[in-house]
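Fill in residues.
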């Protein structure tokens, strides 16, 4: 008999084994090491006391790992990862985990639930719709190599610098945004694992006009923005090329880029970067 309980007392190694099994044949396979998974869920604010597992006797056969944080001025839960191990898939366990955990989340003053689903994962998308979720955003993602950026011309503009920054004026940096980042790319998410990132500022005549952030180990670029008055002048390209120098590997990625943001689409098109299959962000008010 399947029982649902929180994961507060479950060793992370057990969660990791279930995660690897559940996502081994996924549309976008997620074969993360123990440390990579731990880093991912910590960045997203995972709270194991408010995350839930499905247990067949003592075996963890399914899970939902929830991040907890403020989101749009409400306390929210974010689905950091839901998976069912292969031998137990197709039995409605994911739905049972969600339905059994909802009263507990509400009792902990959580007012909304947020998740992302691949646009190509029709089965999951339809399930979330039936559970009452609505689409709140549509995202693209980009995966590309350093070599693709090396082929772009460096800016010929003079009198600008790109350098690492540490004393951050987030209000100033966020004023460059056209859209708010997704949960995993939000400022609060980055601050949880700030030592994993390099943060670069673009300066003209001593004033910051843009910035970018890269997770050195994974090559993930969660935030990048140029002041609107300085766009289409080569600053963004130069920033991307410099960010690439900080990545440990050859592959770079930008996940959860808002699909309908025209300036960013123009920028990626100028770099000849093509988006992969995107995701829907879906939200349920509790």
């Amino acid at each position: 008999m399947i029982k649902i309980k929180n994961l507060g007392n479950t060793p992370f190694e057990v969660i990791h084994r279930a995660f690897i099994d559940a996502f081994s044949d996924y549309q976008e396979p997620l074969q993360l090491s123990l440390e990579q998974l731990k880093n991912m869920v910590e960045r997203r604010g995972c709270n194991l006391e408010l995350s839930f597992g499905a247990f067949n006797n003592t075996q963890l056969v399914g899970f939902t790992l929830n991040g907890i944080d403020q989101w749009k001025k409400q306390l929210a839960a974010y689905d950091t990862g839901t998976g069912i191990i292969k031998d137990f898939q197709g039995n409605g366990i994911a739905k049972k985990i969600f339905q059994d955990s909802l009263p507990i989340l509400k009792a902990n003053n959580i007012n909304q639930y947020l998740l992302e689903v691949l646009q190509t994962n029709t089965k999951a998308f339809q399930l979330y719709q039936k559970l009452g979720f609505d689409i709140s955003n549509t995202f693209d993602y980009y995966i590309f190599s350093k070599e693709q950026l090396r082929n772009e011309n460096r800016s010929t503009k003079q009198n600008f610098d790109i350098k690492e920054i540490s004393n951050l004026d987030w209000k100033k940096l966020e004023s460059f945004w056209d859209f708010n980042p997704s949960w995993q790319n939000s400022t609060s998410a980055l601050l949880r694992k700030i030592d994993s990132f390099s943060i670069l500022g673009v300066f003209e005549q001593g004033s910051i006009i843009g910035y970018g952030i890269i997770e050195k180990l994974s090559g993930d670029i969660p935030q990048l923005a140029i002041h609107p008055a300085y766009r289409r002048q080569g600053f963004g390209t130069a920033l991307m090329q410099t960010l690439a120098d900080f990545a440990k590997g050859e592959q770079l990625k930008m996940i959860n880029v808002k699909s309908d943001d025209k300036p960013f689409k123009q920028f990626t098109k100028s770099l000849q970067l093509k988006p992969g299959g995107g995701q829907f962000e879906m939200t349920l008010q509790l």
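The radius of gyration is 20 Å.
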